[in-house]
Specification:
The chain has strands at about 1-5, 15, 15-20, 25, 30, 35-40, 50-55, 60-65. The chain is mainly beta and about 70 residues long. It has a four-stranded antiparallel sheet with strand order 4-3-7-8, with no helix packed on it. Strands 1-6 form a two-stranded antiparallel ribbon. A two-stranded antiparallel ribbon has the order 2-5. The two termini are about 15 Å apart.
């Protein structure tokens, strides 16, 4: 699966980490904005909800719900 992330914060690094049960199942490279990065995500289980966060700014977080 490919995920495209756009960082609109000029000069500020961000990344995307996908979390399952407190453990990162994916952690993308940090990149400074303004830029776009394509992440190749490993296969994740459908019908499941994962957490995500920015490792640089852990208060930037949310959930990803995978549906078939």
């Amino acid at each position: 699966m490919t995920l495209t992330m756009t960082n609109k914060d000029s000069g500020i690094p961000h990344n995307l980490a996908i979390i399952e049960s407190g453990t990162a199942v994916f952690s993308g490279e940090q990149f400074a904005g303004i830029a776009t990065e394509e992440y190749t995500i490993p296969a994740l289980d459908a019908n499941k909800t994962y957490s995500f966060r920015c490792d640089v700014h852990p208060n930037m977080k949310g959930t990803i719900e995978l549906v078939p």
